Amino acid sequence: MAGFTFNVEEMTVMGNARELVPKKIFELMKQDKDIVYVLSDSAVTGSIPWKILQAYPDRTIDVGIAESNLVGTAAGAALAGKKAFATAFGPFLSIRATDQICLDVAYNDVAVCVIGTHGGLTSGGGPTHYTIMDYAVMRAIPNMTMISPSDANQGARIVDEFVKNPRPMYLRLARGEEPLVYADQDYPFQIGKAVVTREGRDATVIGTGIGVYNALKAAQELEREGVSIRVLDMHTIKPLDGEAVLKAVKETGIIITVEDHNIIGGLGSAVAELLAETNMSCKFKRLGVPDVFAKLGYPDTLYPYYGYDEVGIAKQIKAFL
After folding, report:
1. Are 82 and 75 in contact (CB under 8 A)?
2. Which of 122, 123, 131, 172 is nearest to 152 (CA)?
3. Cβ distance 83 to 36 under 8 Å?
4. 307 strand-pairing partners
5. Spans of the chain, pLDDT less than 50
6. Cα–Cα–Cα angle for 283, 246, 317, rounded to 5 degrees
7. d(CA 210, CA 117)
8. Integer Cα distance of 193 and 146 in angstroms
9. Nearest alpha carbon to residue 213 among 174, 182, 255
10. What are phi and psi of 233, to 5 degrees?
11. How far apart are the first and last CA of the chain?
12. What is the pLDDT of residue 4?
């Protein structure tokens, strides 16, 4: 683990993972002829996926709105020795294409990175278009790595890591722009290892995705009141960095998980399972979408409504303290 202390007020730069991730794939395709890119009706004229399709029509396949075919095609390319990226809307990938992700990709243990966009509540499209079950589904599939980057640049780093060490992977991205948590990329990054984005002694917030930024904002507000909060960037949901979690329990005694996902089956459940199996006792709370079909709305409205924005996080910490 690496320790950092960031000033949230400096996080003014926004990043769009749906732009930076395909840009990184495009860059890598120029260097590696074994990379294949499979799309689901997303090569809009002028977009980066469209440019990839124009540059490498022999290694880019648009299957249309057919998520199961998308995954099956990517798995076939991987079985032929290629490294495949398969991109589509997350709510449909993680439910409609679960069979293919499980059997075609994970069971065969092939080099496919499934990229689900519009993660969590970021689509703004209502219950049918929210992605709040993907952590739980992918955690339950053997051989599958489940990752939710804390910002767009980290998403691009994960693409790099996949190409270096290809494995079955699910990568979740937000729909649009989100704050860049890290001012630069000069921090150690490893799949399966949490990053300590802020040191603290009174409580620990373990976030993933936008939960990391919300946790950092809450920590900075509480610092003004003399409360010291540790923030862990748990970008990898599976495999979970149990060492980082247990260290935080011993040193702070309070654990709060924050995720843009149903609180059942996701990051919070993974941490709870670890605590139970290791007989570790602490004050513990899962923050995220409760076990409901979330209301129609945009994330900036829904995060506070369900209590996992910075205000909700700070409120929970104060209740424990």
Report:
1. no
2. 172
3. yes
4. none
5. 1-8, 10-11
6. 30
7. 14
8. 13
9. 182
10. -90, 100
11. 26
12. 41
Spatial contact of 117 and 175, defined as CB atoms under 8 Å apart: yes
Q: Measured at the alpha carbon of residue 318, what is the angle toward residues 314 and 321, in degrees to the nearest 5?
A: 140
Q: How far apart (Å, rounded) are the C-alpha atoms in residues 321 and 318?
A: 5
In the chain, the amino acid numbered 225 is: E
The residue with tokens 């396949």 is: 61
Res 39: pLDDT: 96
- The count of other CB atoms within 10 Å of the CB of residue 10 is 9
CATH architecture of 185-320: 3-Layer(aba) Sandwich (3.40)
Q: Residue 282 is which amino acid?
A: C
Q: How far is CA 291 from CA 127, 226, 262, 294, 310, in A?
A: 12, 34, 6, 9, 21
Phi then psi for 290, rounded to 5 degrees? -65, 175
Check if the beta carbon of residue 96 is closer than 8 Å to that of residue 108.
no
Show the beta-strand stretches assigned E in 30-82: 35-39, 60-62
- Provide CATH 3.40.50.970 ranges for the chain: 14-179
- Residue pointed to by tokens 């990517």: 74
Amino acid 12: pLDDT: 54
Query: 14-179: which CATH architecture?
Result: 3-Layer(aba) Sandwich (3.40)
